[in-house]
Specification:
Number of strands: 0
Oligomer: single chain
Number of helices: 5
Distance between the termini: 21 Å
Strand content: under 5%
Structural class: mainly alpha
Largest sheet: none
């Protein structure tokens, strides 16, 4: 997913009515760049990177992508 495609995916996101974790999980499923997703989380939750990692680790699709037991 390019940056333009990522921006298109998040353009209608509203933290008042949408869940950041759910959107991050959806973005992981769509193959978005992890750096973009972490930036998205930190901006919308106004949090540090370590807190964004906790959000990412709560996403099932993050684990599907980065499962430590998966053979690469």
């Amino acid at each position: 997913m390019t940056r333009e495609e990522f921006d298109e995916e998040i353009k209608d996101f509203s933290p008042e009515k949408d869940n950041v974790r759910d959107k991050a999980d959806e973005l992981f499923a769509k193959g978005a760049n992890t750096t973009y997703i972490f930036q998205f989380i930190t901006e919308h939750l106004n949090c540090r990177l370590i807190e964004a990692l906790e959000v990412a680790e709560s996403c099932p699709n993050y684990h599907k992508r980065y499962d430590k037991n998966k053979i690469r």
